[in-house]
Design goal:
heterodimer, A: 0% strand, B: 8 helices
Chain lengths: 263, 232
């Protein structure tokens, strides 16, 4: 546990140098956009600036998540297959702990970025829409006939599980890629494509089973979305992501433990 | 005395290419052994297997009775032949990092060596010259109270003055109950500190003997013997 904490601290510090300024910058941009919107009333010429800043802020939020995912992959790839791997693999620590510490760091950053994104979205909502927001959301959930609290919680859990499973798949792909002597990035990418195709096949099979269970005709009817059906899809997807993530983690651990090939 | 390192029929292949081919030898505690060979002889491959950075294809390697793994990493100190640390880190960060992860890391010793070299603990690795970075790597490696030190080309790519310092550091700072396995092709520089020499050629072990015995038998230095062996 102590070594895991040290590893997590190490990875967190390595990534915080880039992620903290990035997240802070996006929040600052959202705050600035809000400021411009507030000032646009007495100063109408600021509406043009606001019209430019709003989409940029939204793109910035999306870009922030993209950066976190891509740079986390890059951090893992460099740590486990390049010269930086010599430091990690000389530690008296099992490969599973290396994988777990990378994954934990990534999930923490996703949660931090998620919280920042939620904050930014609330900042970016136009002042005039705040009062109506609650009403709009209530109407949406009433039409869909779903209990929003349960669905939101499961949706967030599913998104996190999905992101975690995705990263575990990357770890498995990189563990396959490191077996190659050359062009490891290309081999890792090819391995990921292969694993992804298998995952998609499993996902489709799961959805077909679920829809058949609910008696829906997939091709001709447009059935109303019921809460139970939505929950089943979310829960079913979550279980699938847990299975994919666990299997991928096992593959990566096995390959890094038994077939480590640091060049 | 129980050997600190035993390799038996150790082999590493990459497809049809045999990087190590049926290598067998033992090293007793307290010895400084030179792992000598031309480029591509298999020196780095052998050290990486012993350090747990590569998995062997067949054969066995035992360090103090254990196969390379999590346990051996706690008493084997490995110096790779390339820079492996995050360059944005300060020297103090690196010392703290090694202190946290390695129970046998001697912080005071490391700080003393850094002071002797005139290195500020606030200096970042990226601000240092290549030679200074090599010395930092060596300080981190030799500041551990390990049973076995694996040094891969510790004097490669540095100036002669730095080489002398590195060799002096190795001699004065290693635990006398421990053993050192140094890989190099700059034999003339390391010969004076070696107890034994292992010659590798195209993955095979062709010679393993005490250095004094080699000099007496062949009536020449190990460096001259090396040139003779690898010329043929």
């Amino acid at each position: 546990m102590k070594l895991f904490n040290h590893l997590f601290t190490y990875h967190f510090k390595c990534t915080a140098r880039i992620f903290l300024p990035l997240i802070f910058g996006i929040v600052l941009l959202a705050g600035f956009t809000k400021g411009v919107e507030s000032l646009a009333d007495p100063l109408p010429f600021l509406n043009f600036l606001y019209a430019f800043l709003l989409p940029v802020s939204i793109l910035g939020i999306v870009g922030m998540f993209l950066c976190i995912v891509l740079l986390s992959i890059r951090h893992f790839f460099r740590n486990m297959t390049s010269a930086h791997g010599y430091f990690l693999f000389m530690l008296p620590v099992k490969p599973s702990m290396h994988l777990a510490s990378h994954l934990f760091t990534y999930v923490i950053w996703l949660i931090v970025a998620g919280a920042a994104a939620v904050g930014c979205v609330f900042l970016l909502i136009p002042n005039s829409a705040y009062a109506q927001l609650g009403t709009i959301l209530d109407q949406v959930f009433a039409v869909l006939q779903i209990n929003e609290n349960r669905v939101i919680i499961i949706l967030i859990a599913m998104l996190l599980l999905s992101a975690t499973a995705f990263m575990c798949t990357i770890y498995a792909a990189v563990s396959i890629g490191q077996l190659a002597k050359e062009k490891r990035a290309v081999t890792s990418f090819a391995a990921y494509i292969g694993i992804y195709m298998i995952e998609q096949l499993l996902s489709v099979c799961m959805l077909i089973v679920l829809f058949l269970f609910f008696g829906m005709d997939l091709f001709t009817s447009t059935a109303a979305l019921s809460e139970n059906m939505l929950l089943s899809v979310l829960i079913g997807s979550s279980i699938l992501y847990v299975l994919i993530g666990t299997t991928s983690f096992f593959i990566a651990n096995r390959l890094f433990s038994k077939h480590l090939n640091l060049i | 005395m129980t050997p600190i390192l035993t390799c038996e029929h150790l082999t590493k292949t990459y497809g049809v290419f045999r990087a190590l081919d049926d290598v067998s030898f033992t090293i007793e505690p307290g010895k400084i052994v030179g792992l000598l060979g031309e480029n591509g002889a298999g020196k780095s491959t052998l050290l990486k297997i012993l350090a747990g950075m590569l998995t062997k294809t067949s054969g066995s390697a035992q360090i103090d009775g254990n196969e390379p793994g999590v346990l051996t990493k706690s008493y084997v100190s490995y110096l790779p032949d390339k820079s492996y640390l995050q360059e944005w880190m300060k020297l103090s960060d690196l010392f703290a990092l090694f202190s946290r992860f390695f129970a046998d890391f001697d912080l005071q010793k490391a700080q003393g060596m850094a002071k002797d070299l005139g290195l500020s603990e606030k200096a970042r690795l990226k601000a240092m010259s290549k030679g200074m970075q090599e010395k930092v790597h060596l300080i981190l490696t030799m500041s551990r109270h390990a049973k076995l030190y694996l040094l891969d080309e510790p004097i490669g790519g540095v100036d002669p003055a730095a080489r002398d310092y590195i060799l002096d550091t190795i001699l004065t700072n290693f635990n006398e109950d421990a053993s050192i396995l140094i890989s190099t092709h700059m034999i003339a520089d390391v010969e004076q500190i070696l107890d034994e020499a292992i010659f590798l050629k195209q993955g095979k072990l062709i010679l393993h003997a005490p250095v004094d015995e080699l000099r007496e038998t062949h009536h020449q230095s190990v460096d001259a013997l090396f040139r003779e062996v690898y010329r043929s």
